[in-house]
Structures are given as C-alpha cells and as structure tokens.
Batch of 4 targets.
Target 1
Amino acid sequence: MKCRKCGHEAVINMRQHKLALCGEHFLEWVPEQTQRFIEKYGMFTPDERILVAVSGGKDSLSLWDVLLRLGYKADGMYIGLGIDGGVDYSSQSHEMCEKFLANIKSQNCIPTWQPTLHVVDVAQLYGETIPDVAARTTRGRGKPCSVCGLVKRHVMNRVARDGGYGVLVTGHNLDDEVAVLLGNTLTWNAGYLLRQAPVLPADKPGLARKVKPFFRFYERETAAYALVRGIEYIYDECPFAEGSTSIAHKEILNQMEKDSPGVKLRFYLDFLRAREQGLFAQQAAHVELSACDKCGQPTSAPGLCAFCRLWEGKKTDGVGQASQV
Ligand code: AMP
Ligand code: FES
Ligand code: ZN
Ligand code: ZN
C-alpha cells in the first residue's frame, strides 16, 4: 500500500476515507483534520486558554500534542484516581503524562505556549481512592466506574473553573462515541442522546464548555499517531473496564466496520444530523438547577450535589480541602 501523497510505503490505510498515508504525511494529516474539526464545530479559538484532561492514554496525550503543535494555549490536567489493579495503573498513567510534558518541552516544537500539567490526587485531597469510595457507597453496584465518572466530571469542572479556562477538552475518539451511541440507542434513552455531542456548551453557571476535538478519528488512528510521533502511553485499559458493555459494543461495531468500511463514522455523523434537526428536542425539558450548598457546582437536587453527597459518610471534610485546587 502506497501513500496517496508521495508514493512511499504507507503506515496506515483508512478504508472509510479510501486514504493511505506514509508516516510523514499521516503526522501532517492528523493536525490538519483536527484544525478542521475545531473550526467546523466552533470548538475554541487560539485566544482561549484550554484545559486538556489527560489520562496517560494514547488519545488524550496525542490530542495535547496536536493542540500544542497547532499553537493552542493548552495546559493538561491529570486526575489520580488511586487505581492499582495489579499494574499500578494510576501511578503509571501519571508518569506517562509527566514524561510527555518533559519530552515535548525539550523538543522545541511548540510555537509560543509554556504548558503546565495540573495534577489532582483524589485520595490526597478527599481522603479516599476511587475504589475505596466505591466500596463504601452503593453507587455502581460494586464497580467503581460510576463513582469514578462522577468524580472525574466534578474535578474537571472545578479545575477548569478555578483556573479560568474557557474550555475543557477530552480525548474521546469515534469508537468511544459510537459505543456510547449504540448503548443509548439500544435503550432509546432520548435524554442521553440529546446530551451526546462533540461540543457541550457552558449553558449553566459554574459549568465549563466541553469539547472533543478527536471525535471523528478512529481509535486505531489515534494509536497510530502516538506510535508514529513516538509518544509513550499506557497500553493497559483501566482494570475495572474489563468486561464492560462499552468494550463489547466496540467489538461488535468493529466487526461491522470490517464488512462495511465507514459504518461507524456514518452512524455517528447521521446521528448528529438527526440531533441537529431536532429529533430528540422534545426531551429538552427545562431542569431547574441550583448551586450546591458546599461546592457551588450546579445540581438538580436541592442541598448537596451528588459529588458532595459521596463524601458525606467520611469523617474528614475533604470537600473543604478541595478548594485548594
Ligand atoms: P475514558 O472515559 O477513560 O475513555 O476517558 C475519556 C477521556 O477522559 C480521556 O480521553 C481523557 O481526556 C479523560 N480522562 C480519563 N481519565 C482521566 C484521568 N484520570 N485524568 C484526566 N483525564 C482523564
Ligand atoms: Fe475510572 Fe476505570 S473506574 S477509569
Ligand atoms: Zn507520504
Ligand atoms: Zn457539591
């Protein structure tokens, strides 16, 4: 297979685009496409300070790399969840983020910005790791993923708001988005479908705008970018993700993609079009939100938000300490 641009040996063939590229041209193509998506979907501008949530994985580190090379004022944020899983998962992930930052700074390839990495260690701040909180509460039926998602959303919002960032960026790729879409479609969860989008506006006081600039790249493309660019990342999935429905959905969708290249991308883009046309609009019931009594983030429940309620059973006042972030 030859590169369409120069005729050299291709490193990747993207069947959904009928496009094969060599390493050099793939490293050009990914940032060009990312820039195109940022503009097309009105994600952010070069003047804004951007907070990239980095997990140490291929998607978010590649995304931070691309945004910095494109000249965006992008800082990183790593949330230490205290997950071991026999592979020292959280510490390894953190190390990958620090390594990435040291590496890119030493390469002199960033036009203007001096990036920093914010690190929030959940156990240090709140007194318990994610698996500990999950074991103490009934949320998530023994699996920490639901507690973990809640804590990550809260911390991301808080760091974005307190740091004065205009926009919060995550590394979700097309495979992530399509797996969620399939799950929401199987249950016809119109409320979730309405809220699934590459750009979620900051339409409530205290919430940061959330965007996913990589949402049109397949997972194998972000992995290839990290590999060709020489970005070290954590290969392991979170140990708690094993056997999850979203992984099962990804496998099914990949099987379909094999037989019908482009089916994943079309499924998602056609969904976005239907959503734009108002297919789920009647679900947009107005939910009255108030500020949480303790942390100030918007909540639909009176009094404390779900995050603050998580720590109620604990003796130490972790949420108070969190204001140091
Ligand atoms: P996941 O939910 O693990 O598929 O991750 C989706 C996105 O959330 C990643 O691409 C990151 O942008 C962000 N993310 C996940 N875990 C963390 C973490 N521990 N710290 C910061 N950001 C994270
Ligand atoms: Fe949070 Fe797996 S439980 S990343
Ligand atoms: Zn080429
Ligand atoms: Zn709260």
Note: The chain has a mean pLDDT of 92.
Target 2
Amino acid sequence: MKSLLGGKGANLCEMTNIGLPVPPGIIITTEACNEFYDYDRRFPPGMEDQVKEKLGVLEQDTGKKFGDPKNPLLVSVRSGAVISMPGMMDTVLNLGLNDETVAELAKSANDERFALDCYRRFINMFGGVVMGIEHHKFEHILDGQKKKKDAAFDHLLTAEDWREVIAGYKKLFEEETGRSFPQDPMEQLFMAVYAVFNSWNNDRAIVYRKINKISDSLGTAVNIQMMVFGNLGNDCATGVAFTRNPSTGENLLYGEYLINAQGEDVVAGIRTPMPISKLKDEMPAVYQQFADTCILLEKHYQNMQDVEFTIERGKLFMLQTRNGKRTAQAAMKIAADMVKEGLISKEEGILRVEPAHLDNLLHRRIDPGAKLDVIAKGLPASPGAASGKVVFDADEAEKLGNDGEKVILVRTETTPDDIHGIVAAQGILTSRGGMTSHAAVVARGMGKPCVCGCETLAIDYVAQEFKVKNTDIIIKKGDLISIDGAAGQVIKGEVPMIDPEISGELQEILVWADHLRTIGVRANADNPTDSTRAREFGAEGIGLCRTEHMFMAPDRIPVVQEMIMSDTLEEREAALAKLLPVQQGDFYEILKIMRDLPVTIRLLDPPLHEFLPNGEELAIEITKLRATNGDPKEIEEKETILKKVRSLHEFNPMLGHRGCRLGISFPEIYKMQARAIFQATAQLTKEGVRVIPEVEIPLVGDINELKITRVDVDEMAAQVKKETGVDFEYSVGTMIEVPRAALTAAEIAAEADFFSFGTNDLTQTTFGFSRDDAEGKFLHEYVEKKILPDDPFVVLDRKGVGKLMKIAVEEGRNAKPGLVIGICGEHGGEANSVEFCHLVGLDYVSCSPFRVPIARLAAAQAKVKQGGYISKSATV
Ligand code: ADP
Ligand code: MG
Ligand code: MG
C-alpha cells in the first residue's frame, strides 16, 4: 500500500504484520496530503478528529497518554513519500515533551539528565524542522554552555547545564517565531503534521521530483510513532544496517550502531559508531534476534534490506526497512546468490540486474577500495576508468600514444578531426557537450572512458593547462590525471584499476540469460581483436563487419587513393588487384576466428571522398608550396588530387554517392571484395574450418539495386568455386536502412537471403535528421522539451522507425518464410531497443563487443517480461 501509506509507512505496517517488534503508531495518508493542497494548505475537514480518535487507540495500546504529566506518550513525526525523497521534512523525535512531561520522563527513566537532554533535542528539532530556525543558532547556545563549563563533549554537561540550555533554546524560539514554545502536545503534533505536508512542496523537493521524473501528485504520508529510546543507558543502542554488504554483495550483515544514543546520532558522526559485528559480543541475545529478523525480512521482501533499529533496555525495535541501494558489483552478486539460495527464481534474478550496471562492470574500472582526490565532475559519458598524462591536442596524443605513453585527451570538445588522438588516448575529457556529443559517442563506440561536459574546467590551449573554476587547482600538460567515465569524475593523479572480465556471478547470470532468451546476439566487429573479444563476450556471430576501416589503414590508403584517382577501368583494376590479397587476408583472419558462426560482411559503404585528404587543407598546402617555390612535380600531384576532391564534393554526402550506388557505378570494387571474401572462404574450407560468410549490400532502396549487385557477387562465387575446386556456402542479403527498402520489403526479400536493419541510417532517413547536426545542435533541446522522449539515435524510436521495421519484417517473411532478420545499428546494444527487437520477432541483435553481455541480459529480460512476469521488487 505504498501509494497510500508512503514507502516508510507501508513497510512499518508490513513489518508489524509479520510479527516484528515495531513501535506502534498511526499513519496519515498521502490522500490527506493531496486534499490539504486542494484546501489551499488547510487540513481537510475531519482529519484532525480522525487523528485524535486514532491517537486514543494508540494510547490504549501503549497504556500511555498523550500530554499526560503522569505517564506521557511521546512520538516521532516522520515524513514518508511513496518514493524515498531527499528534500522532505526531517524527522522530529520526542514530540509530546513539555515542561511538565519532561519531569515525568525523568522520574520514570530515573535519569533527569537523560530527560532534559531529550527535551532540548526536541526543542532544537522542532524549532529547526517545523519552524525553520537555523540550526547553528541552537549550536551557538550549546557551545556557549560547553565553554562556560569547560566541557569538550555533550555528555560532560550536567542536568543543570541542560536546564540552562533549554532556557536559552526557548528564548531563541520566541525571538525567532514571535511566540513561546508550544507546551500543548496536540498543538505540537498538528504543527509538525502541517510542516510535513508543506515540505512536499518545498523547493528542494520540487527540484528533486523534476530531475527524477516523479509525479507532483503523489503526496507524502505522515508517520506518527511511539518513541523508543536508545539513550536510556548502556543496555540501549541505536543503529543502521544492510542485510548484505551493499558494496560487494557479500552475504554478511553490514552496519553500525552506537550504545546509549538516539536516532540520527549514528549518521551524524558525533561519536564513531561500532561495526555491527561487535554487537554480537556486547549483546549476544539481541544480536541473534536482530540477525534472525534480517533473514526474515529478506525472505519476506526477497531483496537486500536497509534497516534502522533501536534497542531500549535490551529490547529490540525495528524502525525502518527498505530495499537497499547497492553498487553494480553488489547487485550482480546479490541477484546470483539469492537465486542459488532459492530465495528468488532465475527470472527474478535476471530482472534484478540493470543492463546499465553491466556497462559499469565491463570496463576497466577504479578499484572500489581506492581513496580518490576528485577535482571535478562532468557527465558520465562512457564507462570505464583511465589514467594518463594530460594532452590538449590530438596530434600530440597520437605521437605520445605511439611512443607507448598513456594519455588523457582533454579538449573543450572533439570533432572528427580528433579521431586519431582519441584512438591513441586512454580516455577523453571535454568541458563542453552532452552524453551524445562527438566525444561521448565515439568513446562509447570504442569502449573508451569519457567524461564530457565538465563545465568547471577552464581549458587554456595556449598555456596548455586547465584550471578548475572556483579553486586554485591547475593541471598542466603532462600532469597525471584519471577519469571515471561511469561516475563522471576527474581525479588528480593515478588510481589503482581492476580489469573487466566475465567471471563469477556475472558469468552465471549471463548463462541463465542465454537459457531464457530467444533472440540471438551477435557483435559488430571489423578486425581480429574485436572478433576475438566478441566471442569471449558471448557473441553468436558477427552481425556487421564494415570493410571501409580496412581501407583506412596507413599502408593501404595510398593504394585506395590510387584506385580513386584512376581515370580508366584498367588503372582502377590494377589498384584493386593490389588490395585484393590484403582484403583476403582480413577476411581470412576474421572468418577463422569466427569459425562455425555467421559473419555478415558489408561491402564498401562510405562515399569515396572520405578516403582523400581534406580539400581546404590541400589548397593551403599548395598555396604554401607555391609561395616557397616548392617542387613543381609535388605541386602538380597535389593539384590533381585537389581536382578529384572537388569533383567528388557532395552537398549532402549522407544522401549522396555511397553504398550500393557506388558499387553500381564502380562494379569492380564490389567484385574485388566479393572475390576476397570467397577466396578466404575457399582457403579456410580447404583447411577444414567451417565458415559462414554473409555478403551484405548496403543502402538498397529498390529491388533493382540489389538485383544488379547480387548478380556480380553470385558470379564471383561461382568463379572462385571453379578456380579453387572448393565448394562452399554463402548468402547474400541487404541492409534495410532507408524507408523505401522497408516499404518494399516484399519485393526485396525475393532477392535477399537476409535483412539487417541499419537503424543508425534508418533513423536518420526516417526523421530526416543528419545525426551529427541533430545531436550537436537541437536534439538535446528536443529531449529537454519532451518533444521526443529520448534521443532516437540512442533509444530506438518504436513509433516511426519501429513501424517501418515491423512492416519490413512482416512483408519480408510473408514473401520468404524463414528470412533471417537482424539489427546492426547501435540500438542493438541498448536494453529498451533490444526489447523491441525481441517483440517484433527479429532473429538477432548485433552490437559492439563491449555491449554484447548487455544485449544478452536485455534479451532475457525482454523474454521474461513478455511472459507477463511481474517482478516482486526488481527496482532497487
Ligand atoms: P530518515 O528518513 O531521514 O531516515 P527517519 O524517520 O527514518 O528519517 O528517522 C530518523 C532517525 O530517527 C532514525 O535513526 C530513526 O531510527 C529514528 N526514529 C524515528 N522514529 C523513531 C521512534 N519512534 N523511536 C525512536 N527512534 C526513532
Ligand atoms: Mg530512516
Ligand atoms: Mg548505413
């Protein structure tokens, strides 16, 4: 009943129901809070009478009476929203005390000093929390008394001292509020209730709800609960504990307590608390009861609990329980352990681990035990951690990187011109740009740590240093820093790191996920290293092997340029002939690593100008050469290239001469690639390695584009088979990445053995957004203003792009039953998008190797949720 009673209240009731010792109390519902606002911040009619009536029941149960000078009932007043929320009103303890009842408390406790201490705490809390008097004003009075008595600690003050402090507090109260401290407990109570309701709409709470997308109409409940005292002597204590270690997940009680203390003394740090294990020695019987209670609570909630308790004269009271917050590591271990303990099912265990948590665990990360000197915070753009020397320039990063130095590239922001520096750096730090800025996207793609939008950094490229604003910290080029891309932290100096690996609980959970999921998971990999990692991380094939990266390698780019610069077919074929053996080598390696698993190889996709130097830079070089009377032959060569660059210039390269359009204009390019694939295939087949190549034609929008390119590929396969005398299997399919392909999928399926959704381009072409422009310029505003729910390049747009996918799946499979369909856009590694792919019936998702485990887990979660399974408490 969390929505009616608030989180705290509902759990208190539930603990009472299962027979745990909870001090009795009453709860004013969230409904009353909402009505309070309907009545313009007045108590709804009848509420006060109901509270008084229930208070009567409480008095009967406890045998005490509210405001009775003989046997007073004292209570705490605690706020309690549905979702625990910082910003809500702090708890007021000892409510019901006044000049009369304090005497009775002293008598019954046989301790005047204790009673007066409770009273002064109450005036302080009530004055601060309910009336808004600044806490330091109370502190000032207390300090004065301590100085006067030359007492270093509170406990050295006598009853007489407390009396003086109380007099001072009351005077302060009067000065600040213009009224005397309320002596009537009923008045105290309703003033406190009023303050709780009001705190629902204080600035802090409103901001917190906005950030966390919590509805303003939930309201808060008010818990009024009989006081129990942990400060009545040395057989009393108060403490907080987790039922398991929240940082490692280890199944051991983890917490702290203080003997002879009240409420928040433990967290306030007034005295150093003792570890919970000590309680075993000090109060063995109570400890046993507490340990049993924790086991019972875990059984009941089927989750790790975060509890508060108080021991009054050797008797245990439970004051709070809730699902405990935990680290990624702990979430994993606790979920796996609970499954093995039989506490939860595998399905439930799978849902307990957030895919985002895996992201955290699969990158090199900072040793959780390390002490860090955090100097700035930015956005946690790409998880993982790295240490290195600060450099401010991509060329320099590359130079140092090639010399084997570890560097962190620090820029205000990065552009595609910085790629070589990003490749060489251990991590990226930028002062501008969001989670989808160039630096963030590129770093995530490479699995490199990145902190971006770190606005407190003032970067000075000229001085080669950055300052941390509002501090005197200056970091110069060459200084060592570390970044934590999962926490968004910038740390001074080097930090101890631990390597990512799939082992232990993570391995167990992923194996369970593999058994549950029905959709396949492949990886996008363009080279042997990524292919090996893909297998290690559990990929069941390669869903996208891009061939352009192979063309970019330093030893190949001159040949590629030669091919582009060729004026005749003969010249071009000569250049391609040089590329053939290298390409064949590439495919040989990858196919061999991926033996027995399918490998989708996409033929050349980007426009040719991407392989040529930048036109403007070239023009500058030529001008310089001319001005300095440079070598005429070199000038002429550069001018020829520049002419070619200009002739290849496009107004909109994304929609220009690329993909199969290029393959149709220059069929010899695709023919060479097909030959390389098939020769590698024949070679491996001969060696007894089973390989499954899938040749993919990019950017098809019309069936005829596929038809014409496919003929060449099939002919090449037949030719290679004849030449080598080796028979092998292969398939030919297409990317579905422009809307027209999706809409004419029935036709296209006739010529395709498989479809693969290229959702990066499909999102660009469906929205008519160019990604770089959209993410750089307006997309964040769209998301902020809720024009779009998410960045569609991150979370697949189900309504638009998803609809096209559905059409393509239906039409494609109608035309060709059993047509294999996958996705290879970045969405293939994002949990929400994976769920959609599962729901529309794709055969597999494919994503970067680092995200393969995330996709495996997300795929299993999608299957479990589709079965109608509702988790008992999946959200931690
Ligand atoms: P928070 O949400 O900030 O933890 P709580 O309402 O849980 O606030 O209470 C603050 C402290 O007061 C806790 O240590 C809690 O155990 C203690 N406390 C609350 N109510 C009582 C009570 N009825 N008797 C004794 N201690 C209490
Ligand atoms: Mg609490
Ligand atoms: Mg594409």
Note: The chain is about 50% helix and 15% strand.
Target 3
Amino acid sequence: MSHPVTLIPGDGIGPEVSNAARRAVDATGVKIDWQITELNSNLILKTGDSLPKSVVDSLERTHVGLKGPVTTPIAGGFSSVNVALRKRLDLYANVRPVHSLPGLATRFQDVKIDMVIVRENTEDLYSGLEHEVVKDVVTGLKVITRAASIRIAEYAFRFAVSAGRKKITAIHKANIMKLADGLFLRCCREVAACYPQIQYHELIVDNAAMQLVVRPETFDILLLPNLYGDIVSDLAAGLVGGLGIVPGANIGDQDAVFEAVHGSAPDIAGKGIANPTAMMMSAVLMLIHLKEHEAAKHLQSAIESVYNAKKHLTCDVGGNASTEVFTDAVIAALGH
Ligand code: ATP
C-alpha cells in the first residue's frame, strides 16, 4: 500500500531540504504517493492568494503533509501562509522534539537535552488582528480562549502519558497579562488536575528562558501559548546545535503537516549547503504518524550514525559537506 502525502517544497532552502527528505524517505522502502503542491512567495504574489486552494484541496485529500518553509515578508507584504495553513486545517498542536544528537559538538554537548515543545498553534498574538488606532499608534490583539487552551493542554498531557514522559512545565507571563495568560494557566491547571501521574510545573517565560540555558536537562515537556512557543523553540534549537536539526509536527484532529522549525533561510538559499536534518527528522515524525514505525526508527538511526561518524556534516554544524553529500551519506547508512 502506498501512503498519499502532500509534499510542499516551499521556497528559500525549502526545495533543497524537502528534496533531501523525500529521497531519504523513499530510501527507507516505504511507498509514498507524493503529491507535489506548489506554495511559495512568488506564487502568492502572482495569484494574490495567500493560501492557494490547490494546497488545501491536496491536504484535505491526503490528510498528511511534508512541508518546506515558505517565506513570510517582514513588516508588510502578505500575511504568513504557514500561520494561515495551520488555522485553515485547525492544526492546533505544534509539537517539536528537541534533543542532542550523538557526536554533535555544541556548547552544551556535556548535557543530555531531551525535551518536547508543545505550542498552541492557532491563536494568541498570531490572530493577525492589528489596527492603527490613529497615526503612529498601533494595537495588536492577543487572543486566548478557554477552548484552545484546554485543547492544547489536553494534547500535552495525553502526549506525556503516551510517550512515557514525566513532567510538564506551562510557560506564561500571567504576572503581567493577568487575563490572557491567566486564562491559559487556569486551563493548564484544570487539565493537570486530571493527570496526577504527570508532574506539573509553571514558569514565567523570562525565567524559563534563563532556566533553559542554565539547566536545560531538567526540562521534559514545555507547554506554551503560540508566541512564547515560537521564541522558545528557536532558543531550544540553539541548545542542541541550531535550527538545522530540529523537526516539528502540526497536528489537528483530521490532518497533520510535518515541517522543520526553521524558516526559509534566504541567506543560504540556492547554495546547496542547507542542513536537511530538521526536514528529514520531520519526515521521521511523519513516518511514525503513518504507523511506519520500523522505517521511522531506521531513518532516525541512519541520521544519527552520520552525525556519529562526523564526516559528512553540513557547515551549520561544523562540517563542510553539501546538502546532497549529507543526504547521500544518510541513504548509504540506510543500507538500501
Ligand atoms: P521564520 O521567522 O521564517 O521562522 P527563522 O527566524 O526561523 O525564520 P530562518 O530563516 O530559519 O529564520 O534562519 C535563521 C538562521 O538560521 C539563518 O542564518 C539561516 O541561515 C540559519 N538556518 C536556518 N535553517 C537552516 C538549515 N536548515 N541549515 C542551515 N542553516 C539554517
């Protein structure tokens, strides 16, 4: 049986890293019917449609996507298609496992880091509701609802139980945003009370940022509203070797889209030097979602063996291999 999967190469380094991930998945022997769907800033500018129907149609057919990054213009231009897609398909849980890779030299290489970031994916300051009240005075709406907060907290606790994890830390700024973050926190506490077997802690986001750097090994699952989740994800990526290696999953009740934490990295696009690890490990999460557990384990071990050997690493993690050479090494390690 072949699994239908929507493959969105994206733009910037997206096509390079998604092609690498596709080659690696194909090399596991799992049969995927890749349905390639264009989604990039040129197409959006040409059609004026920030979320083309073809993308949504394909994902509504396949229910599973592997997605490269798509550029979001800064301070103006079209709104983020990544955010639009998550909202359109109600992919409410953004799950990002962050762990050290064997053999990879980082500033924290002596510390065993193994945490999972669970980020609410549909609201908060990502509501896109900004308004210029009068010239030079702008407000932006932070939307926090009980429904979305309960839903993400329940997801995190269910995930903790199924993954055999022990502790959840809810991260907030409820000392300042007493209503908005206060509601998020009340929902987390309410759900935590139903899971006495999971330790529940809370940290104010600024303190959490420091604790993550000072004692990252003490974190297990982090549960955050959307914006803190975005920022803390990049911080956590920095602890284990950078954005090139941290994967992610956007999960809804019907659909799931797998994508790296990193963006389109225009500074290195087209140079053939992007690290495809994050995209490949997002594909590992996809294989688990497709219940192809053996292939997922096999691909994860192949990636880890290339890191252990240290010979074919890309420049962001201290090597000088191209995207293609790294990918060839992973495929060789798969032994197909
Ligand atoms: P966005 O806001 O779109 O999520 P970002 O803030 O995460 O983007 P990126 O576009 O991911 O930013 O890039 C941040 C830095 O990390 C850049 O210098 C980029 O070159 C580097 N980087 C990101 N992804 C990779 C990768 N896969 N391989 C190597 N370097 C990367």
Note: The two ends are 19 Å apart (CA to CA).
Target 4
Amino acid sequence: MQKDPKNLVFNVNDIPRKFKVDQVCLDNYLVNGKIKRWNGPFQTVFSPIEMLKNNEIEKIEIGKYPLMDEKTAIEALDAAAYAYSNGRGIWPTMTVEERAYHVLKFVNKMIEQRDNIIKLLMWEIAKSFEDSTKEFDRTIKYIKDTINEVIDLDRNSSKFSIVDNYIAQIRRSPLGVVLSMGPYNYPLNETFTTLIPAVIMGNTVVVKPPRLGVLIYNYLIEAFQSSFPPGVINIIFGKGTEIITPIIKTGKINVLAFVGSSQSADSIRSKHPIPHRLRCVLGMDAKNPAIILKDADIGLAVKECIDGTLSFNGQRCTALKIIFVHNDIVEEFIRKFTEAVDKIKIGMPWENDVKITPIADNNRISYFSEIIKDALEKGGKIINTIGGIKGFNFFYPTVVYPVKNNMKLYWEEQFGPVIPISSFNSIDEPLEYVINSNFGQQASIFGNNADEISYLIDNLANQVCRININAQCQRGPDIFPFTGRKDSAENTLSVFDALRAFSIRSAVVTKGEENNKSIIREIISNRKSKFLSTNYIL
Ligand code: G3H
C-alpha cells in the first residue's frame, strides 16, 4: 500500500502507450443538423490525473470545449422546437420503425468510437479502464435493448380495445422538446439513458453535457449529425447559468431530463414560466444505507460494502453511503472491513485492478476534509490506517466510527471515499434513520434471519425504491426500475419505464356503430393514417 500519494503519480513517459491521450480540441457543436464551428471563448480541460514531468508535478491539459452563449443556446432550442413543430414535424410523425432505424444507424457509428470514448472517460473523470469500458458497453446494450423494447411497445399498441361499445386504439405519443443533462460520474451512460428513449419516442432534444465528461462528445457529434434528421438532436456546451437558464425561461422545454443534485434540479425547473407544462425526469441525491444484522455473513457483507462504498471512489449515486452494524458484530465487522479498505488498490485508471483513482471533481476534496473534521470534533475517529491521506487529487478511503446523528457525515451525501459506520442495538434505529433522511433511493440488508429481514422489507418498502438483500445497492440490471422518493428522484427509469417517462398515451376512440367501424376499416386497410394503424414491426 502506497502511503504517500506522490508515489502513485506517473512520469508522463511511463504512461502505457495504449492509454496516452492527445489533446482534444472540441471546437464545434451541433444545431439543426449542422456541425458549426465555435468562434467564442473556450473552457480549458485539465485531467484530475496529475503527472510528473521533468520531476515536477504537472496538471495535464487534455483539451477544450466551447463556452457558448445565450444566443447560440436559443438557436439550438429553436432548432429542436422547429423539428418538433408542435408534434407535426417529420420526426414526431415518423413511424417507430423508421425512428428505430435512425437510432440503430447512430449506435453503429458510436461503436466505431469505442476506444476513443473509453480513453477519454479515463482522462476526464479518472474512471478506471475497467469501469470506463463497462460504462461504454453498458450504454450500447441499453440503446439496443431500448430499440427492442420500443418495437415490442409498438406491436402491443397496434391492437384495438373494445369496451362498453367503445372501440379504441391507444398508443404512446411524444411530449415535445426535451432538455437532457447527465451527471459527471456517468457522463455517457446517464445522459444516454434519457436521451435515447426521449428521441426514439419522437421527441426532439437539446443535450447539455455535464461539467466534466464533455470531451467525449468530440467523438459523437458526427455520429449524431449523420444519423438523425436536422434539429432532432442539438448539442450545446457551456455553463448552465449562461445557456440553460435562458432556454428554460422561454417555456419551450416540455421535459427536463436531469441527473445531478436536487438543488440544481430545483433551480432549473423553477425558472420554467409554466411549471405544470414541464415534465421532470430526475435522478438526484441519495445516501443509501447498508444495514448489517447480527447473523450476517460478515465476509460477504465486507465484500459487498467494499464495492458498494468504494467503486469509482464512491462517486455513484447508488453507492452505500452509511453502514449500520449490529452492536454484537460491530468489532469483527470493523476489523475485517478496515483491513479490506487498507488493502484496496489505489492508482491510475489504467492500472490493473485499481479501485481508487484521483477524485473527478477535485473541488470536493475540501468538503471531504470538512465533514471528517466535523465528525472528529464530535467524537468520531478515523479507524483505518490509510484514512485521511490525500494529495495529487487522491483522497484515500477513510472509515469513520462511531458516526452519530449530530454529525454532517450521518446525514449529508458525501459522494466520495468517506465511509461512516454507526452501530445499533434495535433494527428500529436504522429504520428511523431512513424515515428521517432526506433521501429515498435504495437500501441494503445483510443477514440470514427471514423474520428480521421481512420486518425490514415491510418497513423499508415505503421508504426507498429498491431493497437489496445480501447485496450492495446498484442501478442494474437496466431492465429493473431505477427511481427514488423524496430528494432522490422523480419518475422512473429502466429500459421499459423510460419509454413511458418520455411519452404520453393518446387514444383514438369511437362508438361501435357500423358507420364508425367502416371509417376505421377504410383508414386501416388503405393505410391512410400513421397513428391509427395495425401495422407493426415483425
Ligand atoms: O450514479 C448513479 C448511477 O446510476 C449508478 O449506477 O449502480 O450501475 O453504478 P450503478
């Protein structure tokens, strides 16, 4: 274990060739089907990975992206609004089969950029090679699964319902212009899990990438431009206050798809002039607890809690962010857990089996120190050997115990490698915690007693949206619903649910008189309507 972060820093000449990165000059953007050159100011991008060059520590500049202005953002919005044309544009009136064809064309082009995108994820947010690869491949799978799901949906919607002498066909139709904004910890995957369902359902989209993880778009713009009709997808870059506030204020955005902090989500949605016309699909804050019961398999709980708290430095919304352990086993758990934490591999994203890498958003490092200090002042202790060490954007995993309800670490989402542990006597104590917490995404229970586990399930089911038994919290498989209560989410995402989140049901209904039936028959057999149709994709 390297106790001095300086020893983890590579000399630029020692970076494996496969992972060396060239500077990315992202100087264009996509509006109305045209890739336009940006002539205004730029944001320089430095990697969170610091390097040694001629024996000096150096920040590595990996590229730049446009800092666009209000006028250009409005241009993008207008292009999306025109492509939608109040639901009468080419895209929203296209058949599902045709739209699926465009998405398939896009995904094939995206696959060609696999290596470039994975490498940039490693440099932009310091995600390990293994996790960056997973993020890319999982996104491709998500897109392909979405195509299959939309085809199924279309097939199921092509039938007629006959109820009480009413004949109806009920399909799902788009909502309008979607603003899609993903988070920096999953800049590709979590943007695409809203963008792709939105587009395939017939909406048009303005995409604004997160603050970190922007340069990957350098390898996607051409694929978007050549795969979709003009205006269907528009991509803009810059600061939220400059480009998001003005477009929300127009009232022309119909759906806000946002993954990030609840504070930012509130700030964006509050600027919409007619809030009830804005559907929000939000993934926000979380502080998922692990509850370790006295008969838990401690080895298993330790393993799952290591992955749950520390994968990608704990920078996952689904990460386990507080561990409650029964008093009878707390000592043994802590001993085994801290041993495992102290052995974890810390290093650069290209190193084999690395788990802890530089912190993506290095502004957060001072926050980690602040919440630890607060806990120490109130009686908590750092209980692992490497806890509290930091430097060169590394923040070593830090386990704090005992964490009590007067500490920030008990309530606040740390979103990083700081692990609070609390002990309990009665299972009602962690339950009280969940009830009083601002978050309601998921929880993990570790134990073997069916009575205790069922008591927890029944009490947690109305507090969170996924209860994991003897397993860490996570989003996948992506076919499962991903959502939350309170400050954690609004609307549900999964391959299946996202298609519903970005659409609304529209029904064509008539009474069962012969005259009406013959009108319907004529429309269907002569394929006069795209909407009222029994055609489906085989
Ligand atoms: O950051 C939140 C992600 O949706 C978590 O996804 O559980 O697959 O890491 P994950």
Note: The longest strand covers residues 42-53.
